[in-house]
Every structure is written in C-alpha cells, then in structure tokens.
Amino acid sequence: MNARETQKFALSYLQATQCHIIEKGHDHITVKLSPEADRALTGRPYYWSFVDRTGVEPETMTFSWNFRAPDEEAAEHGAASGPPAASGPPAAPGPAGVSAPLLQNGVRVIQDDVYFGSRRLEQLFDSIKQAGRCVAMFAEPPRGGNPLSSHPYTAWLGANFKVAYECDMKREELYGLGISLATGVIEEKFLSRLRDTKLTPRLPSNVHLLRNGLSLKKAMSQLETALERRIKASDFGWAEEAEERRKDELDRVDRYYKPMIERSAAEDQADAISSRYRQRAEEIDWQYRPRVKISVINCGLFHLPGIE
Questions:
Q1: What is the DSSP secondary-structure string of 39-58?
Q2: Residue 67: what are its φ and ψ, rounded to 5°?
Q3: Are 149 and 284 in contact (CB under 8 A)?
Q4: Alpha-carbon distance 181 to 136, whole Å?
Q5: How does DSSP classify residue 177?
Q6: Strands (E), the chain
Q7: 3-class DSSP state for residue 86?
Q8: 162 near 297, Cβ under 8 Å?
Q9: How confident is the model at residue 88 (pLDDT cuts 50, 70, 90)?
Q10: What InterPro entries does the database record attribute to this sequence (predicted)?
Q11: Cβ(178)–Cβ(302) under 8 Å?
Q12: Which pLDDT tens digit goes with each residue over 270-308?
C-alpha cells in the first residue's frame, strides 16, 4: 500500500466508525475518535470499564495521522536541509511512529505516522477484521416500485474460506461460498454476487423474510462439505513432489546420523546423537509433509431478493 491508498483506507475506517474529521490535508488527517474507534485503537480498557460502570459521557482521544513513512520524509527533506545543527541534548525517544502530544485550541492531539507496516495501520486491520467477522445485512430493494407491495427475501449464509496448501512451500487460496437457508442451493461465486449488491444493516421497508429450511449449523456443514469436494477434485501433484522431497531429506539424515550412532563407543554419547537424530527427523517431517488447512476468515447472514 502506498501513502494515498493508506490514507484512503484510514479515512474509510474513520467514516464507517462515525469519527469526527477535524481537518483533512493532502497527507494528513486530524480526527476526534468516536467511542467505537476509541475502544478499538487507544488501548484504554480501564477507562472504558469506568465509563460503562458509571455511565458518564466518554471523552475520546484526538489524533493527527501523517500518511508518509519516516523514510519517505527523510528522503524528501534530508538532502535539502543538510546535517542538523547541534542544539542541545536529543529528545527522549518514544514509541515508534508516535510523536509527543500537542495542544491545539486546548485539545491534546497525539501525532502518529500511519504507513504500511506501522503499528497504527495494523490496529486498523485488526479492528476491521474483528468487527467484520460476522455480519447481518439486507439488500436494498429497487426504487420506484409499488409502495404497497412487499418483496420476498431469502436468507443466505455466506462464508469466506482460506485454503492453505502447505509443505516446504505454501500457497493460499480464497473461496467465497454462499448457501440459501430456504432451499439449500449453494453458489460458489457468492462473493462476486455481493460485490454488485447494495447492502444495509437495517431491514428495508416493504420487505418480508421467507422461512428458513436450514439451520446455520447445518448450512455451514454443507458449505464445508462442498468446499472439501472441490479441493479433493483439484491437482495434488504438488503434494506428491513434496512427499518425494520429504523422503529424500529423511534418507539424507539417516545416512548422516546412523553411522555416527553405530560408531559411538559410549552409551550416553549414542543416546545424545539418537536424540538429535529424532529431533531432526521430526523437523523435516513437519516441514515437508504435505497438508491442507481450511479456515473461515469471516461469515455473514445476507437477506437477498427472490426465492432461491
């Protein structure tokens, strides 16, 4: 992510969490966090537990985020400014990317560098990941219809799966599957369908929800079964090659350690070599043995128009 993409992402997060943008510049944003964002980003669990217990009005923090990495600023200004003049002892170091707070109109503003790899951007990623792990959304009905009619909506369970093919190398694939809770129909390109659908967290007017025929547990089980069938039908040549490499490495370890064990005169020396041999064999087996791991990244209940 470059600086512009990082700024666009951070601004989307702030708007989605209803933060108050005080100032927006070319490469910086000054923002007063909303309670939701403050809870996620500031690490103040004791303060928020006090707010929850007493019911007082919370005072959220204000940040000024700079979207240029420190090395970019150094490259831009370092050559022009030349070596800095000695002007007293250096300032005390603080956390990476975080400057001392400033006062603007009596408000404490914490300055922070937000760039790819920074601690603050990782916090934004984690916050979105946690908030979006499980959602419930409704498709917006088309405008201009009969205000007295009611549109039938079908509930779909959508899930994003990550499939990791692992050996001494690793490859990951993402699958977005969906299943109708009314009929059990599975759509393997469900994520693509959602990209073209306007969604809202509130139930739209003039909409009625159809009865579900599947429970969420059974629906998820059917999605997992469908994904397993798809994986089993794929090419597993990579696994055969990895297994050959595993056997070759184990043979090489055998040829190295077994003669040493046979030649060792002392019993305790032979035991020590045997222990190293077993440990090395286990490491090679773990590194090269082919395996497939499936995990759920996030999921959601999506109510979409029609009967499917």
A1: HHHS--HHHHHHHHHH-PPP
A2: -100, 20
A3: no
A4: 14
A5: E
A6: 20-24, 28-32, 62-66, 102-104, 107-113, 134-139, 151-166, 170-180, 186-187, 199-200, 207-209, 291-305
A7: coil
A8: yes
A9: very low
A10: YqhG (IPR024562)
A11: yes
A12: 888 899 999 999 999 999 999 999 999 889 999 999 877
User: Whole-prediction pTM value?
Assistant: 0.62
Please report the beta strands in 219-261, taking only residues with DSSP state E, as ranges in sequence order.
Answer: none
Please report the pLDDT score of residue 102 as a whole number.
62
Q: Residue 165 and residue 81: Cα distance in Å, rounded?
A: 51
> Do the Cβ atoms of 119 and 97 come closer than 8 Å?
yes
Tens-digit pLDDT profile for residues 24-44: 888 899 999 999 999 999 889
302 CB-contact burial (10 Å; exposed 0-12 / middle 13-18 / buried 19+) = buried
- For residues 118-139, give the mean pLDDT: 85
CB 250 within 8 A of CB 206: no
Per the listing, tokens 């590194």 go with: 287
> CA 303, CA 267: separation in Å to the nearest integer?
70
Longest dimension (CA), the chain: 94
Residue with tokens 């659908």: 197
Question: Tell me, what amino acid is at 103?
Answer: L
In whole angstroms, what is the distance from residue 34 CA to residue 131 CA? Answer: 15
> In this structure, are residues 63 and 30 in contact, taking their beta carbons and an 8 Å threshold?
yes
CA distance 21 to 70: 23
